[in-house]
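Subject: Sanity check before I submit

Could someone independently write out the structure tokens for this chain? I want to compare against mine line by line before I put it in a report. The sequence has 416 residues.
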Amino acid sequence: MSPSATENNSGDKFYQNLEELATLKPVSKSILLDREEYQLKWLKYLPAPARTRFEKAGIELSKGYPVIPDPKSIPRFINEAYEIRNEVFPYIERAIKADPHKRALLSAAKEVQHLTKHLGTEIIGLQLADLDDNQRDELALLVAERVVVFFRGQDLSPQKQLELGKYWGQIERHPQARYVPLPDQSYDDKLQGSGITVIWRKFLNDLNDRKQDFRKEIKNTVFHTDLVHEKQPAGITHLHNDTIPENGGDTIWSSGYAAYDKLSLAFQTFLDGKTAIYRSAHPYLDRDDPLKGPVYIEREHPIIRTHPATGWKSLFVNRAMTTKIVGLEPTESRIVLEYLFGIFEKNLDIQVRFRWQPSKEGFGTSAIWDNRISQHYAVGDYDQDNDDRHGTRVSSLAEVPYFDPSSISQRESLGI
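---
Independent answer below. Compare away.
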């Protein structure tokens, strides 16, 4: 055998070994154990309200729940991760064509309650599953204006939740997320899953070998905005909780519109037009330099972005995934970002806290918010073993973020 052939074989063996090691990167029981066996185990713990909802919707649970993606389908190298969604796709902003008075939506409700002056609205007496397209457009506009809108007492199947999400944009299907199986779901080479991800902390803590500890903050409970590493990040996101403890587990939303209005005119002028780097939650390996450690998907987006429906400016940064401001020295960037993160986190007058209390037996509660103009925080002040909660989430991807120099702030628009 020639030296060159030996070198090639050695190189091939190196990358073969590397890829085998990389499969251990997302260390969890989904890899160490038989996935179907683990799914069947956890099906036994599925809360009764969730099981009833799924059975009513015809969800097939014979192979266990939730469905865990095959580790072989999860990207291990950064180039593979970028390829999942690296091309711009068409996006229609449904809120733009909505009746600004929202007559079709609001006239059908029994009651509309604004939870704070400019943030958070609860609509009473409407079923999301029954909305027509005009009402869906108007709901998108209401969410764009009020940041987050709540609906209690919802009889909502996962399929209807997904249908609503598809109306508002391309569904984010995450290769690493646990999901609800659908009878007619199909896969492609890059993505797995139905687009309906599972929010079930008891399960996720066990899957990731994470022990509940009141003294330690769970990593994903910090204030954050979903999917900012995407070329076209999330717009409207819909979380439907079908299993809700009597107390605890509130969620807090903070307004990006109001955060921008908290800034002085001079600071607004400084930030307008600047960009920052936003990274993914999950790390990967660099195929060309695998020994340098974990690397992340990174995108450059405007720090101040304009919402296409309202035309209002919003501060678009978050502690969890915004790493640096382009053009500033590292120390300058760190100081500025820390101040901006604090605006979202420390100002109670730009936040709304929602209590997920049960409404009536057999019905769930939905929160629908716009990730382009908000951050949120899941309060983990409940006992996962005795106060189980379970929900499903659908995220619709929106436009490529942009800044329009002629756009104005929310308070300017409202004449405040």
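---
OP: Matches mine. For the report I'm noting this point. The longest helix spans residues 3-22.
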